[in-house]
Amino acid sequence: MLKKLSAASDATIDWLGRGFHTVVPEMFIAGGAIALVIAWWVLARWYQRCPHCHRFVRRVREGSRHCPRCGRQYYYGLRAMR
To answer: Taking all residues of the chain, what is their mean pLDDT, rounded to a whole number?
Structure first.
């Protein structure tokens, strides 16, 4: 049993010693970072935080909406305060 655990530990240490560039190509990391930034930008256009409970809620285009969590109203003008 101890031999199996030490072998697994040695394999993990060897894997970490090689570095992550051998496991995940840099282009995948860069592509993931770019996709994350684009998703954050798109979601920021569709959602905003409720000023009362800070939950993500749909952005108001005109008029006002009620937060599904706290039930209070939030308004269109809050977008300018971001």
So the answer is: 78
- DSSP-derived letter for residue 53 is T
pLDDT of 45: 87
CB atoms within 10 A of CB 14: 9
Contacts of 69 (CB under 8 A, 6+ apart): 50, 53, 55, 57
Q: How many Å apart are CA 35 and CA 82, to the nearest integer?
A: 23
Domain ranges for the chain? 23-81
> In this structure, how many other beta carbons lie within 10 angstroms of the beta carbon of residue 80?
6
Tokens of 58: 């749909």
33-50 burial code (b ≥16 CB/10 A, e <16): eeeeeeeeeeeeeeebeb
Task: Give the pTM.
Answer: 0.49
CB-CB neighbours of 74 under 10 Å: 22
